[in-house]
Specification:
Elements: H1 2-32, H2 37-62, H3 66-91, E1 94-95, H4 102-121, E2 123-124, H5 126-148, H6 151-163, H7 172-204, H8 208-233, H9 237-262, E3 265-266, H10 269-291, E4 295-296, H11 298-317
Antiparallel strand pairs: 1-4, 2-3
Helix pairs in contact: 1-2, 1-7, 2-3, 2-5, 2-6, 2-7, 2-9, 3-8, 3-9, 3-10, 3-11, 4-9, 4-10, 5-9, 7-8, 8-9
């Protein structure tokens, strides 16, 4: 058991640091090539920060653990709303007055509908995977067109890219090492994590989907927790909210889409019967919670956080 827990911790650390080096190296390369911060933010940064979840889900599916693969996506979306926003708002209420996240919220709900349809069908096929990736490409293009017409959105992207551009002054070989090392960390970290998680599941008789919905989902949501928490403390409230909604869209369309484009993923009965519906309900109530009194208050944040603890406990009581 000690070895399995150690592998999970090492896997998460490799994923987090690997993604950070990959993104920073890629941003530095793009800056040297004079690519606009808007394009860098919408593509390179978004792809890079989603790379750990993608490699974990793909590795799990190819290794014969589809429950971990889809559990990671569904569980991460639940954790993003209940755990990440819950903890962030409990510490510091998040004002939402004047925010314009309605369109992205609608897209998140539509992406969730696609996820439901795949679950009800019983499997995510190659065709569905390709369709989801195509929708993601359109979503990125839509964001690009919208941002080009908004100086505020352009400045937000520029600020985000600037925060990640610490390698710009480094020699090219250092930047190349950061990218290669980051990729290696993500790939090896995912392998170590899946090995540890699957071993832990077998030891305690826990289903692979429960491991995916909880341990793996929480671990891959840690970067979102850090980003949203810091953004809220800096009063960058749109970043805190947009980070969660955007992450949930990418989890479904990119992670699930890319993974099922490579290998078809059967959906465990447990996720069809409960978890996909729980994720849907949480997604639907998010908008009213954010809009009520123009803030996500501390009491509502605490409700989300306690609710997530209850959800996690339920998973292990019904393992």
């Amino acid at each position: 058991m000690t070895l399995a827990i150690f592998q999970i911790i090492i896997g998460f650390l490799l994923l987090i640091f690997g993604a950070d080096f990959l993104v920073r190296g890629s941003v530095a390369t793009a800056n040297k090539l004079k690519i606009s911060p808007l394009i860098i933010g919408l593509t390179i940064v978004a792809f890079g920060t989603s790379a750990p979840e993608l490699v974990v889900s793909l590795n799990a599916a190819l290794s014969g653990f589809p429950g971990i693969s889809i559990g990671n996506v569904v569980g991460s979306n639940i954790a993003n709303i209940m755990l990440v926003l819950g903890v962030t708002a409990t510490v510091n209420a998040i004002p939402t007055k004047g925010m314009n996240f309605k369109n992205d919220y609608i897209i998140m709900c539509l992406a969730s509908l696609i996820l439901i349809l795949g679950c009800l069908y019983g499997a995510f096929t190659h065709i569905l995977g390709f369709t989801m990736v195509a929708l993601l490409i359109y979503y990125v293009y839509y964001n690009y067109k919208s941002a080009k017409q908004s100086k505020e959105l352009q400045s937000e992207q520029a600020a985000e890219v600037e925060e990640l551009s610490g390698f710009d002054t480094k020699p090219n070989y250092i930047i190349a090492l950061a990218i290669i090392g980051g990729l290696a960390g993500i790939i090896y970290g995912a392998d170590v994590l899946i090995t540890g998680a699957s071993d832990l599941a077998r030891m305690f008789g826990i289903s692979e989907e429960v491991i995916g919905l909880t341990i793996v989902a929480i671990g891959t949501s840690l970067p979102e927790l850090a980003t949203s928490f810091v953004a809220a403390l800096k009063k960058q409230n749109e970043v805190a909210i947009g980070n969660i909604i955007g992450s949930n869209i990418w989890n479904i369309l990119f992670i699930m889409g890319m993974t099922s484009s490579v290998v078809e993923i059967p959906v465990p009965r447990k996720i069809i019967d409960f978890d996909i519906w729980f994720m849907t309900i949480i997604s639907l109530i998010l908008y009213p919670m954010l809009k009520k009194n123009d803030q996500l208050s501390r009491p509502r944040g605490l409700i989300l956080f306690i609710g997530y603890i209850g959800y996690t406990a339920y998973q292990y009581m019904n393992k």
